[in-house]
Design a protein that fits this description.
Number of strands: 0
Shape: globular
Oligomer: single chain
Structural class: mainly alpha
Largest sheet: none
Distance between the termini: 28 Å
Helix content: over 70%
Number of domains: 1
Length: 237
Amino acid sequence: MAAGAINTVVGSGTLITFPVLLAFGYAPVTANVSNTIGLVPGSAAGAFAYRRELEGGRTRTLRFTVASVLGGITGAVLLLVLPDEAFEAIVPVFIAMALVAVVLQPRLERMVAEHRPPPDAHGTGLPRVAVYLAGIYGGYFGAGQGILLIAILGLALPDHLQRVVGLKNVLAGVVNGVAAVVFIAVADVAWGPVALIAAGSVVGAQLAARYGRRLSPAALRALTVVVGVAAIVQLVT
């Protein structure tokens, strides 16, 4: 539930569920694969809950979706092709980067507000390239993907932050979805945790969509950082 809520409002829910799976003894790659599949229903629920913020942007959403699909497939394939030892070595660095992004989120939001394009601005191909790269990261290991997307989209688009969050939910859900399809086809999946994460994340996403704006951002960031540090400790010891 916590992961689904955080993913909907900000985007770093993997920092909640991934360490829990590690603590229960699942191998890092299996934990990551199962976590990605389990969060797909929550991502879909979060995107649906923000559907009003997506009105009027269908063409733009489709263009970014293509970039996310390609990025998610690339990241998922990299996870399965690269050796497990590479994942175990890389992920603590990714988690640390995600935690830095979580801590710096207020500054990123201020930067977005200060440098937001004018209403008649037209996006170039560069934002789509950036979304593709974020999709690779999300398909390989998704923690902090939402924060990256908020920064990319917020700086590239002439929209207020809630519309950016709505588009972020769609794109992060697409990345998780295409990666999940790849994982289900060829990877080792722990289906018990998948079912629990799926159910909890859907409930959390709905609660966040309704009450998320009332939650303390500082408290959410603090919880995420604590859990993320626990994950790093779990991986390196």
